[in-house]
Amino acid sequence: MRESLQKGEAPARVSEKARGEFIVAPILIECRDRVKPGINIFSGITLEADKENGLYGECDFILARSASRYALQSPLMLILEAKKHDIDEELPQCAAQMLAALRYNEQDGKPLRWLYGCVTNRVSWHFLKLHGIDLQLHPERFAIDEVSKILWVLVESLKDVDQQASHAA
Q1: Backbone angles phi, psi at 7, to 5 degrees
Q2: Separation CA 41–CA 29 (nearest Å)
Q3: How far, CA to CA in Å, does 99 sit from each of 5, 10, 47, 115?
Q4: Greater confidence, 167 or 42?
Q5: For residue 122, what are the domain limits?
Q6: Is 153 in contact with 127 (CB distance < 8 Å)?
Q7: pTM (two decimals)
Q8: CB under 8 Å, gap of 24 or more: what pairs does 20-28 form?
Q9: Per-residue pLDDT at 105
Q10: Is the pLDDT score of 21 beyond 80?
């Protein structure tokens, strides 16, 4: 995996967006493979939960428990790529997307009390948890060279929210 991540960071003939996807996507795929079946990765999906209150828009990545890889159901975690590499500037956007995902799940008849998010600039990863309207930021940011820690947080976060979803069903 480290070799793939290094290749994804190579600047030659690759756009900034593509470089981000080459780094983030392999990590999310590895995470999905470590979690029980049924987790799908969605990229560039528009999440329309509450347009009237501004809770709509395109999400970089959504990890969801969906029966189909073509139709979004049960968003569990959102991953936002920081524009201009500024994680702090994107934390409010990620929080809004997380709130939209909670509302989306409610409207879909699969309410969750909490879910997770992450903002990354490819070099650093910062995780969030939204419980109702209470937003918690992980006290630590993880560097890409700590990919095993990033994977651990992703997997454990998905297991936590997925277990909650299973108990609600």
Answers
A1: -65, -35
A2: 8
A3: 30, 35, 11, 9
A4: 42
A5: 2-168
A6: yes
A7: 0.87
A8: 20/81, 20/122, 23/122, 23/144, 24/60, 24/61, 24/79, 24/81, 24/120, 24/122, 25/61, 26/1, 27/1, 27/147, 27/150, 27/151, 27/154, 28/61, 28/63, 28/79, 28/154
A9: 92
A10: no
Q: What is the mean pLDDT of the chain?
A: 87
DSSP secondary structure, 110-138, as one string: ---SEEEEEEE-SSEEEEEEEETTEEEEE
Give the total number of structural domains in the chain.
1
- What's the pLDDT tens digit per position in 91-148? 999 999 999 999 999 999 999 999 999 999 989 999 999 999 999 999 999 999 999 9
CATH number (domain holding residue 120)? 3.90.1570
Give the pair of three-digit tokens for residue 112.
């969750």
Half-sphere CA count of 80, side-chain side, radius 13 A: 28
Whole-number Å distance between alpha carbons of 130 and 118: 11
Under the banding of pLDDT at 50, 70 and 90, the label for residue 5 is: low
Residue 69 CB-half CA count within 13 A: 7
CA angle at 89 for the pair 44 and 126, rounded to the nearest 5°: 75
- Tell me the C-alpha distance between 105 and 60, whole Å: 18
